[in-house]
Design brief:
By secondary structure, the protein is an alpha+beta fold. About 35% of the residues lie in helices and about 30% in strands. The protein has a six-stranded antiparallel sheet. Strands 5-8 form a two-stranded antiparallel ribbon.
Length: about 160
């Protein structure tokens, strides 16, 4: 049986709809830029009487600069999101900070200090937010960003 042009068009339209509908469902997820902007709004330039903190993003990397006001030195941490496990991003209830850990506990987070030439590699990093409520939201945003940047959970 031959199809006429109308039935071919209906068939083609239904195929396009079938393939592109799932893409529209995921289109509502925040983009990488939106996620980074959200994190910066909640956690960049956090200061108190003991420390100053600034965050900067470079692609799928994060640089945390934490300056101790009391001791006068700065620690700089370099984090590659593709090396983090999104399930290991946490913020405890009542805390103002977000804790991140690497996949398989590998020491790949680079830390430098302005008063010491040594470099230390660790398996975790943390930074502060403006409030404990913000910490939970930022942790969720970081988990999303880590997945966007290729970070995966350990199998077990």
């Amino acid at each position: 049986m031959k199809r006429n042009n109308n039935s071919k068009m209906v068939y083609l339209a239904s195929m396009i709809f079938t393939f592109f509908l799932p893409m529209q469902i995921f289109a509502g997820e925040p983009t990488k830029k939106e996620t980074i902007d959200f994190i910066l709004k909640k956690a960049d330039n956090v200061n108190d009487s003991y420390y100053k903190q600034s965050l900067s993003f470079d692609g799928c990397g994060l640089v945390i600069k934490s300056t101790s006001i009391k001791f006068g030195f700065t620690m700089i941490s370099y984090i590659d999101f593709s090396k983090l496990d999104p399930s290991k991003v946490i913020s405890e209830t009542g805390d103002y900070f977000v804790w991140m850990e690497t996949k398989e506990r590998k020491q790949v987070i680079k830390n430098e200090w302005t008063n010491d030439p040594k470099v230390l590699y660790t398996l975790f990093a943390k930074f502060f937010t403006n409030s404990s409520d913000d910490a939970g939201k930022v942790a969720k945003a970081l988990r999303h960003l880590i997945k966007l940047c290729g970070g995966t959970e350990e199998l077990f």
